[in-house]
Fold this protein.
Amino acid sequence: MNVLSFPQGRITPLGAEILYDGDQPCMGYRSPDRTVQFDLMGAFAPTPGVQDGVIIDSLKGLIPPWKIRSTQGSNQDGVTFNSAVYDPLEIDLGVQVFGNTPKATRAVIRHWIESWDAERQGELFCLTEGGYFFAPVRWMKNPVDHLLAAEQCRQPFTWTAMGDDAFWRGLDSVCQFPAPGTTLVSGSGTGFITLTNDGDQKGWVNHVFYGPGTLEVANGHNSTSMIKFGPLRENQVALLRTEPRRRGVTDLTTLPVPAQDTNLFQDLIKRIVSFASNNNVPPLLRQFESLFGILPPQGELYSLLDGRFTQPLPPRTASGLVTERHIAVKVTGGDANTKLVSYVTPRRRWPF
């Protein structure tokens, strides 16, 4: 896929010097379809009067706002804290568009506008000595500035972006089970997955389980409470989300799943149901099938989950210390294709 970049060409000598010094953070934006990228700040940003592109000269709203939820009794002094809830990011970008000619300036503005959308999310990203963080953002409201650029080589205006998730995301910490030193004998194995959370917010782990087999995974770091899921059949894949407000189980199966062994009577019922529904079995008929012991492999996988996840990974310390967290895992009824891939996305309030 070809990517149109602003500025185009190689990094300038000034940019290379800025990159070497490491004094300025890098910031940029990618369009929702990832075909256009603007480097807006730092070593890769355009040099005004030399390169066509967009630069940032002011930033506002990089930290998400929040609300404190509390209760107070009729005779209570003060309040009782309940929770803090973050609102979406609302980022005001003070930008300047540069072109070597008025025509070039208009072209950059067109690409900038076409790279934002109110429905599809692009990506605002930052790179500093603290790491790489990004925010999926959408176009929040139209600019109030006059976008003339008819006879100009520079056009300033304010652009407002909205980040639904409130926080800036870092690169995932990923671990696969079986871990080194763990063996899977006779379809069974125990061990740990090891993850780190480099964010300043609690991290909810996602587990991708590849069947066949039954999975047991601890409810968080150093927890002895095990959540059970399965059994999955061969080729079945499921995503388990531990964050309470997310859907708990999602079917990710793409390969054919072996058919269930059925007796003659069950096979007759199955054929009748398939004929009546044109192979598109609705939920009520699935329940009817279940009465006769017919449980379709691609049925609702949420019913295979025994227990609820409640414990996230703690964030790094305020001093910046990142600690490895270990989550116990047990697999039974598996084979050489059985595996668990777990990951957590660190989230921060401040990207720099």
Helices lie at 13-21, 102-114, 264-277, 283-291. The CA atoms of residues 202 and 314 lie 5 Å apart.
